[in-house]
Amino acid sequence: MSAAWGYKNFSVFGAVLVQVINGSPLEWVHPVSNLDSIRAYIQDVAPPVLFTVRTPEIIDLNPAVSLLPSEDSNMNRATAISRMKAYLQVSARPGVQITAGALRIAIIDGITITNATVKLHGDSTGIITTTILQYPYLGEVSWE
After folding, report:
1. C-alpha–C-alpha distance, residues 98 and 109, integer Å
2. CA distance 40 to 80
3. Residue 14 carries which DSSP code?
4. Domains of the chain: which residue ranges?
5. CA distance 65 to 143
6. What percent of the chain lies above the pLDDT cut of 70?
7. How large is the average pLDDT for residues 52-65?
8. Does residue 13 surpass a pLDDT of 80?
9. How many degrees, rounded to 5, is the angle at CA 28 between CA 26 and CA 31?
10. At a CB cut-off of 8 Å and minimum separation 6, what does 82 contact?
11. What span, in angstroms and rounded, lies between the C-alpha atoms of 104 and 110?
């Protein structure tokens, strides 16, 4: 899977910025290597417009997660990771804010995982803000 986003008025001349990424937050994400092919395609199909094609810098979120001792199992850890990835599948894009609270809410279902603590940058109220030149990705999850 690949995804692309357009941003108006990028740079001095007001060009359209097209950000392109390969992969999916559910599995993996990496920069696009064939930007010249994408530029050529856009030139062929788009109306005449100034544009720039880039691939964003990948920003690893690397959250620290803790589950209740009675719910901390390998299965629930895998479930928590899966739910955070699903949340990022619909929320991640260049220029977005990801909060520890949003990841926490994504993890909790009230049945198998009734409570969790998620920290970004060591803080349960942590926020990671990306620019339109960056893309948030789950990265490495540590368990506390």
Report:
1. 19
2. 41
3. T
4. 2-55, 58-143
5. 5
6. 99
7. 95
8. no
9. 130
10. none
11. 12
Tell me the CA end-to-end span of the chain in Å, nearest whole number: 33
Dump the DSSP string for 88-136.
Answer: HHHH--TT-EEEHHHHHHHH--SSS---EEEEBTTBTT-EEE--TTEEE
| CA 14 distance to own-chain centroid | 26
pLDDT at 91 over 90: yes
Scan for tokens 């929320």, then name that residue: 91
Structure tokens at 110: 């009230």
- pTM here is 0.88
Amino acid at 139: G
- Structure tokens, 49: 């417009």
Residue 46's CB: how many other CB atoms inside 10 A?
11
Distant-in-sequence, close-in-space partners of 111: CB < 8 Å, separation ≥ 6 = none
| Token pair of 98 as six digits | 């990801």
CA dist 114 and 68 (Å) reads 8
The residue whose two tokens read 């997660």 is 65
CA angle 113, 114, 118 (to 5 degrees): 75
Predicted local distance difference test score (pLDDT) of residue 93: 95
* Other beta carbons within 10 Å of 101: 14
